[in-house]
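Re: the 101-residue chain
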Amino acid sequence: GSGILAEYGKQWYQRRVRGWKQQLGKCYYRLSLFRDAEKQFHSALRQQSTVDNYLYLAKVYIRLDQPLAALDLFAKGMEEFPGEVSLIIGCARVHEGLGDT
């Protein structure tokens, strides 16, 4: 009944509010709920492809000890945003952390 309608309205509103998923992902990240943060940042990236969304999701992968996933994500981000310094630096830092020189 009304609970289903309320949930539907909430979901519709969340999809319409720009940046909502990213903000929710940041909250989950700060609470160390990295899997939940990952879901929100993935959703944010699908909703709106921005450099920030790539960086936040890569940060989650690094915290989940998945540096190769972070590198893949940085590569996709650099394809979409060529020459973006923050993505290049993020990629370099992951390589440095892996001992690649």
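The mean pLDDT is 90.
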